[in-house]
Design goal:
Elements (H helix, E strand, L loop, with lengths): L10 E5 L8 E2 L3 H7 L5 E2 L4 E8 L15 H5 L3 H12 L3 E5 H6 L7 H4 L4 H10 L7 E5 L10 H4 L5 E5 L1 H10 L4 E5 L7 H12 L3 E4 L3 H9 L5 E6 L30 E8 L2 E7 L1
Parallel strand pairs: 4-9, 4-10, 5-6, 5-9, 6-7, 7-8
Antiparallel strand pairs: 1-11, 2-3, 10-12, 11-12
């Protein structure tokens, strides 16, 4: 695997000593040299993690037409895109909510899409870890209302799974989307625990990456379905007002004071004015 990286290597500022009773898979030397250390993932159980970029003031989106995605938050930073490609490269499946698909209909959740310069190297990493060439594209929707013209449905190389409710499944079946597997996982809401169980049992998915959005992520955190979180903090300032809503990392659920949903910092890296955190719930 010949990785050149995003430019300058990451600067490691802090890393918690590695302690794990799991059988783990480590990164190859070429990536560790760029990343400034390792990222161990379990090989003997399902591993669920997330990757987000937030602004200096904690927002995930400008929520402005054609500027809803994380690229505007990161300033299309190459280090952030490289980390995104790395986290996708180790995922058997990438999960996103329906709102994320609506705001980024042309997006494909793969390493090659976000960092094409090293698509071959990331593909070799996938193969070396026993993964398929592309992760399953898993879309989560209560209503079953999806953009049928989205790019993930048109690419014949992608396998798409839609997790939805009973009523949502009826709407999706009516769309007649080819090569899409529909999972009915609840009457009024999607059972996220059952989603991960089905992904492992039916599709052999052992590593699951969540890429949003904030409401879907809040539900995953509340259901304790996220183990580790990659979080890029950008120097960009977004702001918000009573008439211009901009979501934060967790949205749609209000956690009570003194709750037990906090994280423990595992590592901190820097590249210019960008900070890269990895935390464990």
């Amino acid at each position: 695997m010949n990785f050149s990286g995003p430019g300058d290597n990451f600067q490691l500022l802090f890393e918690e000593p590695i302690q794990s009773s799991d059988s783990v898979i480590s990164l190859p030397d070429s990536i560790r040299n760029i990343y400034g250390g390792d990222w161990l993932i379990p090989s003997n159980r399902q591993y669920r993690y997330s990757n987000f970029v937030i602004s200096h003031d904690g927002k995930t989106s400008f929520s402005v037409l054609h500027h809803e995605g994380g690229g505007d938050i990161s300033g299309f930073n190459r280090h952030d895109q490289w980390v995104m490609a790395l986290t996708r490269a180790r995922a058997d499946a990438v999960t996103v909510g329906a709102n994320t698909l609506r705001s980024e209909p042309n997006h494909i959740w793969s390493s090659a899409f976000i960092f094409p310069q090293e698509s071959e190297a990331f593909n070799q990493l996938r193969l070396s870890e026993g993964r398929k060439p592309f992760p399953y594209q898993v879309l989560v929707t209560r209503s079953g209302e999806l953009n049928a013209d989205a790019a993930v449905f048109a690419d014949p190389l992608l396998e798409v799974i839609v997790a939805t409710t009973t009523s949502g499944a009826k709407k999706l079946k009516a769309l007649g989307l080819p090569k899409v597997t529909i999972l009915e996982l609840g009457e009024s809401d999607v059972d996220l625990n059952l989603l991960h169980e089905r992904l492992q049992k039916d599709f052999g998915v052992m590593s699951v990456l969540c890429e949003g959005g904030p409401k879907f992520y809040a539900a995953l955190v509340h259901a304790r379905q996220i183990e580790e979180e990659f979080l890029t903090i950008s120097p960009v300032v977004v702001g918000a007002s009573s008439t211009e809503y901009r979501p934060g990392l967790i949205d749609g659920l209000a956690f009570e004071p003194g709750n037990k949903f906090g994280v423990n910092l595992q590592s901190l890296r820097r590249a210019g004015n960008m900070l890269f955190l990895r935390s464990r719930y």
